[in-house]
Amino acid sequence: MKKIGILTSGGDSPGMNSAIRAAVRTAISLGWEVVGILRGYSGLINEEIRVLDSRSVSGVMQFGGTILQTARSKEFLREEGRQKAVNMLTKHNIDALIIIGGNGSLTGALRLHEMGVKTVGIPGSIDNDLYGTDMAIGVDTALNTIVQAIDKIKDTASSHERAFIIEVMGRESGYLALMSAMASGAEFAIVPEVPYNIKAVAEGLRKRYERKRTNSIIIVAEGATSAFQIEKELRDEIGFETRVTVLGHIQRGGSPSVFDRLLASRFGYHAVDFLKNGGSGKMVGLVKDEITFTPFEEAVSKVKPINKDLINIMGLLGT
Ligand code: F6P
């Protein structure tokens, strides 16, 4: 191994820069050359590369986003696009790739691995939906951002004696919704993994009002339904007026938490170590605080189950 490339792809997540920094510095310590590929798989196809030395990753850990920038490449989804990417790697003598991203990005990594490219994946997605790791980079920071926002909404919910419906990200996963609901003391969490029953939510709200609990917070994962849909259903069900807040992309930004910086640094180091030992086609992960490697096929196709114990606890504490 002489030269490796690093790219970030798909939705950015806070902490990606720490992973880049760790991978660059670990690779340099082995005497390897490192290049950054800009804008994910688009940059790979369009030859957007730049040399990464130790200095180039100084002072980046405290920033959210990714210094390599990111994109969702349509061209890479096609065979010709992927062939262009492989040709580009050959042209620039890049021996292996580190791909930092979520489900779609690691599916791309799997395709490259199948085409004979040495690859290792690092889970970076606020959704925390990748099988093979307890936590992905950015999840902890996103949760902190969400909980801070909910705390603020609770102030006004309490003053006005209102119910708020807050929509959080999580295309396929209710992880952010469930965890933020528990950590903020919300009353209800609606997640894609458990079918919701609007009558039960309405009944819960009604009972709270009878007990003079005149403000409530309902967290909805975008993957379950939209907050506006819940608002409509509650209005139709019990004529209940609520307010809706969609947190949106604020959840993906901000300075990474200590947890995310440490996790990303460990992942960056171990991704390089994995390549050094001749590995390919796997995603580095953290399971019970141990570094693990999961084949891309499993990481992107196996469903990471939601923690049923936490669903039960939430059901109890939220009422
Ligand atoms: O996959 C991460 C994520 O933030 C999802 O939670 C969300 O649905 C999606 O990305 C939004 O993607 P985009 O920024 O491309 O609209």
Report the C-alpha radius of gyration, rounded.
21 Å
Mean of residue pLDDT values: 97
Q: Kindly state the percentage of residues in helix.
A: 40-55%
Low-confidence stretches: none
Across the major sheet, the strand order is: 3-2-1-4-5-10-11
Structural topology:
Layout: E1 3-8, H1 16-29, E2 33-37, H2 40-45, E3 49-51, H3 79-91, E4 96-101, H4 103-114, E5 118-123, H5 139-160, E6 163-168, H6 175-184, E7 188-190, H7 198-210, E8 216-221, H8 227-238, E9 242-246, H9 258-276, E10 282-287, E11 290-295, H10 296-301, H11 308-317
Parallel strand pairs: 1-2, 1-4, 4-5, 5-10, 6-8, 6-9, 7-8
Antiparallel strand pairs: 2-3, 10-11
Could you characterize what this model shows?
The chain folds into 2 domains: 3-138 and 256-301, Rossmann fold, CATH 3.40.50.450; 139-252, 3-Layer(aba) Sandwich (Rossmann fold). The mean pLDDT is 97. The protein is built from 11 helices and 11 strands. The chain is 43% helix and 18% strand. With 319 residues, the chain is of the alpha/beta class. It has a 7-stranded mixed beta sheet, with helices on both faces. It has a 4-stranded parallel beta sheet with strand order 7-8-6-9, sandwiched between helices. Bound molecules: 6-O-phosphono-beta-D-fructofuranose. 6-O-phosphono-beta-D-fructofuranose binds at residues 11, 72, 102, 125-127, 169-171, 222, 252.
